[in-house]
Specification:
The structure is a single chain. Strand 1 (about 35-40), helix 2 (about 45-50) and strand 2 (about 60) form a beta-alpha-beta unit. It is globular and about 40 Å long. It has three helices and three strands, in the order αβαββα. The protein is of the alpha/beta class. The chain has one domain.
């Protein structure tokens, strides 16, 4: 196990709530809530993002001129199956505002559910 992995495990074990920007962390832990940020207008799609997209609880969809919030919006990605993202809750955001009230309520409800069912 690497030093970074050891350090991350220590941080996760010591704190009730941790926010992390990392797909790779999913190899070490199962988060209570996993949001993935997507830009339907960006053709580049990281392999690590594709690998974990199916595990996302919801998507933060960055407005890049496409109306991603509209049903039937089609991203410009190649080789990413719609089934991995199509049925997930989506929270459209427009820079510089990357957090919305519905997103906060979603995260809060998932975190409360996880806390209530953890036996803590």
């Amino acid at each position: 196990m690497s030093g970074a992995t050891d350090q991350m495990r220590k941080i996760l074990s010591r704190h009730e709530n941790v926010m992390v920007e990392s797909n790779s962390l999913l190899e070490l832990a199962q988060p209570d809530v996993f949001l993935m940020a997507l830009d339907f207008g960006e053709a580049d799609f990281k392999p690590s993002s594709a690998r974990f997209l199916g595990r996302a609880d919801a998507l933060v969809v960055v407005d890049s001129g496409l109306d991603a919030a509209q049903p039937g919006a089609t991203p410009v990605w190649e080789n990413v199956e719609r089934g991995l993202w199509g049925g997930k809750p989506q929270f459209p955001v427009k820079p510089p505002n990357y957090v919305t009230r519905p997103m906060v309520e979603f995260v809060r409800s998932r975190a409360n559910y996880a806390s209530a069912n953890s036996g803590a």
